[in-house]
Amino acid sequence: MNSRITDLLGITYPIIQGGMAWVAEANLASAVSNAGGLGIVAAGGASAEVVRGQIIRAKEATDKPFGVNIMLMNPDADAIAKMLVEEGVKVVTTGAGSPEKYMKMWKEAGIKVIPVIASVALAKRMERCGADAVVAEGCEAGGHIGESTTMTLVPQVVDAVKIPVIAAGGIADGRGMAAACMLGASGIQMGTAFIVTDECVVHENYKQCILKAKDIDTRVTGRTNGHPVRGIRNEQTRQYLKLEAEGADFMELERLTLGGLRRAVVDGDVKTGSVMSGQIAGMVNETCTCKEFIERMMREYQEVVEGGLAYVR
Question: Are 167 and 188 in contact (CB under 8 A)?
């Protein structure tokens, strides 16, 4: 399947693995890239040298293109941005801020820059500053989210910019991929669905939470303080929402979640940890390799497109 994204990134399928902190490390990223998609190593809150180590491991595991996601709120973001050039990284996705101050350095190094955006205004701004594409992420996604749904955000972004648009949020099978393409997207990004793959090294408790989740099992916390996060409901989300309703201040809420993602991903504490997940968790009900998952996605996509199925119920 050829698209503007496969041509831009030199990949076989227009499928990008999301840059999930504590989840998207070298093992998962290289497996996705070897399967024909674009694997992403997530910097999260790590130091430049820790991220460098993951990049080196990914290079050892694949000769295919892969990228790095940099969370721009990371205190070590300047050092990471420079290190990406030193390591010859080909693709950078960004979140939690604007990459404008790094754009000249990255472009001169031949890096493809793809910011994750949640609004038309930010998409236009990223295009003006030289982004090669954008990921339009709807609020169905896991982790930090905006307010617009994928169904409404993607076509508006497609109409507003000339660079390729990658759809994210609420996609877990070939039907979702076909729908995103019908909205004008040149590719898709998925996170939650990759968490349960065999190559993903998260704690088994985290995987089981997703595998057992139903359609109604995610909650959004942090709307009152402007930092909405979607995850699977547990003791932490219930306590957080209770405190929000009582008018707790930001620092009290922040203390509740501090270190929560690591506790869930690494330690397997899915009761008081942050089990970040998209709304499609209810559709994810079996484990497989990244290769098997991507090949199934493409078969389903082809069945929808070639069969002319609209999936109208």
Answer: yes
